[in-house]
Amino acid sequence: MQTKTILAAALMSSTAVTPVVAQERTQVNFWHAMGGQLGEITDGFAEEFNARQDACQINSIYKGNYTETMTQAIAAFRAGEQPHIVQVFEVGTATMMAAEDNGAVYPVHQLMEDAGVAFDESDYLPAVISYYTDTDGNLLSLPFNSSTPVMWYNATAFEEAGVEVPTTWDEVVEAARALKANGVEAPFGFGWQSWTQIETFSAWHDLPLGTEENGFAGLEAEFTFNNDAVETHIARIAEMGEEGLFSYGGRRGDSRSMFVNGDTAMWINSSAYYGGFASDIEDFEFGQAMLPLDTDLAEEPQNSIIGGATLWVLQGHESPEYTCTAEFFSFLSEPEQQAMWHQETGYVPITTAAYELSQEQGFYEEAPGTDTAIKQLSLNEPTPNSKGLRFGNFVQIRDIINEELEAVWSGDKSAEEALDAAVERGNDLLRRFEASNS
């Protein structure tokens, strides 16, 4: 099912339901952080679910970016005006788990059981749900938009420069030089720099970000990413900048335009940019490849880690509203919805059935490379270093890492100085989180 089909169904349903019937429906408020095309599809899911039955009304409401949405939900809960469902990005997991300990969160596994809605965690891809389970393996939130960093490349520019897509970091540097010589202004770039160049780089090479199994094993965790491997990696990128091979384009996805307009030919960021690229890029062929490997650190990659967000359910509402919430979650997990979401956006399907449906539909043959994210996540059984991270206050800590890395790119600090400062400042926030949640 394509996006336009969902939206058409939504429009038809909105005209078919009278105001009186709509008022009789059980209302469920769903706050999300999906803007643009992603927001249209997200709202379309809610509208299609509403059209399927007449008992529940999912109100899909955009609340800004990830940080804004999470902050507003916390404030709303304190005021007793919380939504039923809130979309929270992966680095907010520890904060939401602490909220669950304090009775603010309704764990998804418990929600589905209480509502009597069929739910089998084995249906979901292990690499996706392992990030969001408690120590007993119970799923706390529903994976919705799950992604992982990949190497986006300008296939046309590579062909014109006569170079192959790199598989190692040494090859990235050499490819960047060849691309630069052939007229590409800033051959290499990336977005979400903490996620792509520290968190995922470490997982890809099976290196710890911190102690206590990257925070999964306890609140006493301390950061260790100021190690020689990461320092060398950040220093390498800084040297590429000095050579004119790398240009920093900002946080999050701010540098997207640099890839779309052809100024950058290698761009590491989320697999979820596929839908937008397919729509916006007209002047060249593009593709996605696996992340490069530092062969001084490992002979083979371990696995990449999940990004994106999940749907958390907040306490404080009536039982019928939670029944509707559980039924909506069941709808979102159906293969048809997940396969469409995956194919339209580049987010990975959260269930095995959706992945298999995409294969049956011939999607990966029609769009080669679009299964790169799934392959990266499933390369190997995750280790304590590569299953993700669960550090408290990590939303704020990512801002610290951003500040320190920006000091490296501007030449104000060395990689060693910046990483040492990021670890020291980050550990201070970890201790504050531990003190308030022990």
TrEMBL record:
SUPFAM superfamilies: Periplasmic binding protein-like II. Pfam families: SBP_bac_8 (PF13416). Residues 1-22 form the signal peptide. It is found in: Periplasm. GO terms for cellular component: periplasmic space. The keyword Signal applies. Its main location: periplasm. CDD domains: PBP2_UgpB. The keyword Transmembrane helix does not apply. InterPro entries: Bact_solute-bd_prot1 (IPR050490), SBP (IPR006059). Keywords: Signal, Transport. Part of the ABC transporter complex UgpBAEC involved in sn-glycerol-3-phosphate (G3P) import. Binds G3P. Belongs to the bacterial solute-binding protein 1 family. The complex is composed of two ATP-binding proteins (UgpC), two transmembrane proteins (UgpA and UgpE) and a solute-binding protein (UgpB). This is sn-glycerol-3-phosphate-binding periplasmic protein UgpB.
